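Input sequence (162 aa), recorded before submission:
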Amino acid sequence: MNVISNAGPLITLSKIGKLCLLKELYGTIVIPEAVQREVVVHGQGAIGAEEVALASWITVQTVINRLAVELLRERLDAGESEAIVLTLESKADLLLMDEAKGRQLSKKHEIQLIGTLGLLVIAKKQGLISQVKPLLDQLVNTGFHMSVELYQTVLSQVDENF
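Predicted structure, token format:
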């Protein structure tokens, strides 16, 4: 499966010590250069920077269509723009992205996508993690924003109680 990731899921999963779930779920992950710069270079010293830099199963790929990236840059940051364009260029099966604007544009291009919360649901259903609730609580404690309704929805998808 060809999977592209934006910075959000990489950073968020690193914050809760679960970046490895991506390898367990998909084997390899591809990130565009802008995401690598955002997470590893500009994020140097922050949670996720070293984990992503050392992950041999995360590869960096160059986006070819710079014009498409620049057009998306009018609405999105560099990482999101390159992730969407790279997904389209490589005909990837899945894009990992949390940011609302990027998700909306991805849907307009009929890109299959999933965010961090969806990844946790899949990981639980595949037996890679035993519970989602403690991880959701950790996410909230690290500053991840989600409504109470979304929190409850995620828990109901994995048959856990609020």
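Checked by second reader. The first strand starts at residue 3 and ends at 5.
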